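Hi support team,

I submitted a single chain yesterday and got back a structure, but I'm not sure I'm reading the token output correctly. Could someone confirm the output below corresponds to the sequence I sent? I've pasted both exactly as they appear in my results page.

Thanks,
R.
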Amino acid sequence: MEQKSEAGPMMSKKGLKKQQKEAEKATKKAQHKLQEQRENGNENQPMEDCSVGRYGNLPLICSQNKIEKCLCQVKDLTLEVSDKFVCVRARLHTSRSKGKQCFFVLRQQQYNVQGLVSVSETVSKQMVKFVAGITKESIIEVDGYIRKVSQKVESCTQQEVELHAEQVWVVSASVPRLPLQIEDASRPDSEDELAKVNQDTRLDNRILDLRTPTNQAIFIVEGGVCRLFRETLQSFGFVEIHCPKIISAASEGGANVFTVSYFKTTAFLAQSPQLYKQMAIAADFNKVFSVGAVFRAEDSNTHRHLTEFVGLDLEMAFNYHYHEVVDVIGNMFTEIFKGLRDQFGDEIKTICKQYPAEPFRFLEPALRLNYPEGVKMLKDAGVEMGDEDDLTTPAEKLLGKLIKAKYDTDFFILDKYPLAVRPFYTMPDPSNPKSSNSYDMFMRGEEILSGAQRIHDPDLLTERAKVHGIDVETIRSYIDSFKFGTPPHAGGGIGMERVVMLYLGLDNIRKTSMFPRDPKRITP
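Hi R., thanks for writing in. Yes, this is the structure output for that exact sequence:
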């Protein structure tokens, strides 16, 4: 018997049964969708968005308007500003959403703070969803209230407060897929079970790698080294000079020099500003220093060598004895070390979280030993070497450990090197023909400065060049620069990146070079 539908013609029992099954299927599908909405916190989602105008993507900033708006620094978000309304622009470090709220972390250099956006009368579910979908490393601007937390946020530097967001705007979005994760690049080496980032990946993606709190702190400290170097020497009466980097002859001789095409001839990249420092002394500047690039074409793939580094160089005229200069350099280093200790405590603490190291120890005045004393300490420790042999790298490191154990200092000066192991322009020791008026300075058992009294008499300089088998005509311009009367002088050159590496106790100089250059890397 057929039944007649109120909505249309008569339907067979088979057709009616099929319709009922489809209706049941649609009902189940609707119930399933409703269940999903409930689990995701979207039940009874309002059609209208109460947060319109409080979140979204800002137009590209093209300097079209001048806006008077005070942006707070993350490091200043403390209990002192609790319950105050602030605006912060920083990177989105991480985010995690659950239900009607989303926690996120804002990062600004080595400082970070936890943020929270949750559904309220002024914050919609759409806004929470938008914040949860912002890609990591995007730059965002957040307006909200600083609130005191009941339990410290251990994962952030600002542990006692969090930012409750009222507005969230994306200033510059990052692509979703990152070549490395900032969290992975920030982990200490001791956390073996978790993912880390190797050195080549870091350097290939240096822009991201430099964003880690540790790297931010390293290069703030490095800037401090340069500033303290300048300020200390200026307080000692030094004048800063700027020396050419394109020169007509190798500054220090040898093959370790980069050759460049210079119009219709050949030029070289300076291995050192020494000649020009000495010329400045001959020109009566008396005390000079220079901060600039130094180039070394050495095929050395070690933890402490670069083909381009920042040289901190100084030269000084003295009255009667080159120790006048050695004392000044030693005092300069102790002032730099004190400045780093007293002014960069937060940065050093941040670095030590990822790269633990013993605090740098030094004496005031700096410890100074003669070369034979250092050789004796090494021989007593079982090292076989001659009295006039130069120190090998392992011997330097061992001597650093021996001196640390005996004198409790990571910085020391080794004076009176054998004449045979020093360059031709080094002044011989008048009381010992096998010795010289030269010195090296060390941090944690590694050399960071090599210096000497320079020969300022052209005749003696010519004689010493011949002893070293150097063709005098190839250095004629250097010798001639002393023909018009030059005061006795001494100085030295320092590798900035090496100083920072050793002061912080890091294991590789590439960590202290923002964009390192070595025999295998010239990018980025």
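A quick pointer for reading it: The longest strand covers residues 85-98. Let us know if anything else looks off.

Best,
Support desk
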